[in-house]
Design a protein that fits this description.
The model is unreliable at about 110-135 (pLDDT under 50). This protein is an alpha+beta fold. A hairpin with a 2-residue loop joins strand 6 and strand 7. Helices cover about 15% and strands about 30% of the residues. It contains two helices and ten strands.
């Protein structure tokens, strides 16, 4: 999104954490909490919120404070939020079963194998599944 002025009324009202801030970690934190925006401020603060409608954009040169968690990147400035727009995480109800995908040369997933002790056991065979999905 860009660099935005802040004030005591807080444009992004939820302080997620203070410390070794990076833009990526701040965005991940705010996104996981369901917020629309993440903003780093003054190099060591991560703020979250859902509304920028009253925020005033300023030049990126005002958001030049080095990130406490990554000195090679900038994380806002004094009373300046470096803001990122976040895509919402899908809810568990937004997934829909599409189809089962059989292994090209074996039985359909989940894979089965005979155990030496008692009957069939479902096993993931992650390596076999990963190989199958690369084809």
């Amino acid at each position: 999104e860009g660099c935005f002025k802040d004030n005591a009324a807080r444009k992004l009202p939820v302080l997620a954490y203070v410390g070794d801030v990076t833009n990526e970690e701040c965005a991940t934190t705010c996104q996981s909490r369901g917020y629309t925006y993440a903003g780093t401020q003054d190099g060591d603060q991560c703020w979250c919120g859902n509304d920028l409608s009253t925020s005033v954009r300023t030049t990126m040169s005002k958001c030049d404070e080095p990130c406490a968690g990554d000195g090679g990147r900038s994380c806002g400035g004094p009373w300046r939020n470096q803001v990122y727009s976040l895509a919402p995480l899908p809810s568990k109800d937004s997934f829909q079963y599409a189809a089962c995908c059989p292994h090209p040369t074996r039985s359909p997933l989940p894979f089965r194998r005979k155990s030496t002790n008692s009957g069939d056991h479902h096993v993931g065979h992650a390596a076999e599944f990963a190989e199958m999905t690369r084809r």
